[in-house]
Amino acid sequence: MKRAKIFYKDRLAGILTEHDAGYTFRYLSDYLAEKDAHAVSLTLPLRPAPYESPVLFPFFDGLIPEGWLLDIALKEADVSVLDRMSLILLCCKDCIGAVRVEEMEGKEVEDE
Length: 112
Prior knowledge:
Layout: E1 2-8, E2 11-19, E3 22-27, H1 29-33, E4 51-53, H2 58-61, H3 67-77, H4 84-91, E5 99-103
Antiparallel strand pairs: 1-2, 1-5, 2-3, 3-4
């Protein structure tokens, strides 16, 4: 199981998890309680219930680079193009826009 912390404008907004059945994204309750909290994507509006999907959510998949930049990442890290979660963790620490992704070790964030 791989997990990632999802930041919106340097504020920890939620957790993305890859598991056997697919993917889960959930906003943290502290983030939802902020008066100026924003959704990370229009397709993932703010809500306390987790989002579930058998495939990686299109918004997060869209953060992964394409073309020659993806080719460089694949060669340098020896990651399969099919391993989308590993690609997000590898390539999206400093992506364009308001969202940033960081690998999560163990149970760093408790919010369930």
